[in-house]
Every structure is written in C-alpha cells, then in structure tokens.
Design a protein that fits this description.
By secondary structure, the chain is an alpha+beta fold. It contains six helices and three strands. The protein has two domains: about 90 residues; about 60 residues, no CATH class.
Amino acid sequence: MIEQAQQLFESVQANHKNVYLLTNAIRLKVAGELAENLEEMADVLYSLNECGKLQDDSAKIMRGLKANLERLVCAIVTRDSLPGRIETSYCAAQPNIKMSLSIPARSTKPEQFLTMMRALGVSEDLLGDGDTKPEVVRVHYPGAVEMISELLAAGKPLPEGLADAVKTFPEYKVKLTARKGILE
C-alpha cells in the first residue's frame, strides 16, 4: 500500500479520536458551567457548524477520489479482460459494472415524471397538482429503480413512454473485503 494512503488513514483515525474526545468534553461543559450561558452556547454552535462543514468537505473529497478509482479499476479490468477479483495482502477487491438508471423527479422534470407515471398506469388524479388536488400516490424511488432495472436485466421492453423518461448509465463499484488493518 502506498505510504500516502496509510498516512491519510492515520490522520483521519487520529482526527476521529480527537473529535470524539472534544465533543464529549463540550457536552460536559454545556451540561455544567455553560448550562445557562447563551452566548457561549451560541459560540459552540457556531464552532460545531463550521467543523461540520470541514468534515463534510473532507468526506466529499475522499468519496470523489474513491469513485474515480472505482471507475479506473473497472475500466482497466474490462479493457484488459482481467479476472474480476483483485487480491492484496490488505483486501480483496471485486470490480462490478452494472447499468443503473435515473428516474425523473416531479420537481425538476415534471413532464417526464408525468410520462413515466402514465406509463406505469398511475392516474393523474392520484398524483395531485400541488395546489387544489392532494397527492395520494408518490413514487418510491428505490422500488421504481429496482422494478425498471429488473425489466432491463430480463431484456424486456419498458412500458411505452417509460423508455423516454428514464435514462440509463453505467455504475462502477468495487466491493472490498478486508484481510487486515490498514496500519498492520
């Protein structure tokens, strides 16, 4: 494993421990001496809010790099027709490319959403209009994605109108199974 990956893990692990210790110390202070000090509590809230932004940003950076590496690993395995499983002393990695899909949302693509709902046999009366008619039926997106994925995987055509509303795209994932700790 490259040194920078281990250093990143060490840094994140140490930070996690420090966050745990400091948040517990803050909890105790707030429950005790700061229990009625609104100005100090406001400052703590401000600090927690800013810390959360930094943590979210760090997580976003790592998720982005992970997604890029997953695409790269899947592309190399596919290009070179390699066996799928990658074995290292740290982990086993199983690249997986599957087709996924994007279902239109009512808020961002209302026309495509209505086309999809009609294709699924849902009456517009049950969808409501946001003003006078109540919304009776709502799309359960995980279920809809699963249903449409099953139709596509079985080679069956999508209901008329649905093919125009739903967009497919490849999804690159690498399933990881740990063999030993990163710092071992």
